[in-house]
Amino acid sequence: MSAALMLRRGAAGRGLVVVAVAVAAAVIAWLYWQQHRARPLVVSGFVEADQIRVGSRVGGRVSEVIAEEGRHVKSGEILYRIDPFDLQERLAEGKAELARADAEYARLKAGYRVEEIAEARAKRDQAAATLDKLKAGPRKQEIEKGRAALAARKADQDLAETEYGRVMRLKKESTAAQIEVDRVERAMKATRADVDAAEQDLKLLEEGTRKEYIAAAVWALAQTAAAAALLEAGYRAEDVAQAAAMEAAAKAKVAALEVQVGELDVRAPVDSVVEAIDLRPGDLVAANAPSASLLDEARYWVRTYVPESRLGRVRLDQVMMITCDSFPGEQFKGHVTFVASEAEFTPRNIQTPEERSKQVFRLKVTLDEGRDKLRVGMPVDVHLPE
User: Fold this and answer.
1) Is residue 282 in some structural domain?
2) Domain total for the chain?
3) Is residue 77 a part of any domain in this protein?
4) Comparing C-alpha atoms, which of 383, 292, 263, 372 is closest to residue 334?
5) Whole-number Å distance between alpha carbons of 338 and 363
6) What pTM does this model have?
7) Together in a domain, 189 and 299
8) How far, in Å, CA of 104 to CA of 97, rounded?
9) pLDDT per residue as tens digits for the range 307-354
10) What is the DSSP string of 240-307?
């Protein structure tokens, strides 16, 4: 074999060795990278939701159960009803009391009627006129009339006395009968009495009104004037305020009873799924005690745990992908809404590639997608970033 051929074979052998060494180095480097690179971490968890425990604030006997476990209910939809017992009657009574309080408050606030005030003013004016009349006393014409009446009575007396004298003379002459004598005596006495009465009447007219009558008229005027002023001023502010307070109390009572009547229909507070409702018509439910459990459909999340070594790669609002065996090949987006500040040991129901003896931090990933497919209690996997 020639020297040239030997040289060519030696060079080819050396080239194969170099290639082999390069390939071996690449394989070793790839194996090293595979062993030391940060692998994606997949942690498991379960889909959870806010649990709402509903009940009634009044309690009583269940009359109808509408909702069923596992059923989707809308906000405001009735779950079950409670028998009203005497609530409707108490509400009707409260409304009647409110109507009465409203009327009383309106009456006091409006004050007295115009007719009542006019009547009081008329009585006051009448009392004032009576007082003026008494203070003024008899008029001059009345006194003159009294004097004329006295003069007439005296004239009658003079005539009766003259007739009496004539008859007595005839009696002495035995020409007058006894009956005639009696008649003129009665007539004379009557005229004397009439004169005395006329004299007294004239004295009363001349003396004027008695002071006692004037004082009584002054008191009557003060009384009627005060009554008129009281009606004109209206009711006392304290009475109006008391009526307003009673009206407010009646309104509050009616409002409270209306709320209690509204509590007879136990409704779903939000769109949700009925998790548990173990009621039948005739059951008794206590006031302010939960009697049904709902799951809020507005927010689903996954509770999971991450090792301490990966905690530095997790931050709030970070987007993470979630997968589920029930929907192979699909991913659902979520974001981190809670990272625990204290470590704990891995729960028994969590599986991770890391050693279970290590401490972990609880993580809460809220679902942004998949609420129409995923269900509460489903096991899912959360894919943490590398």
Assistant:
1) no
2) 3
3) no
4) 383
5) 6
6) 0.56
7) no
8) 11
9) 887 888 888 999 999 999 989 889 999 999 999 888 877 655 555 544
10) HHHHHHHHHHHHHHHHHHHHHHHTTEEE-SSSEEEEE----TT-EE-TTEEEEEEEEEEEEEEEEEEE
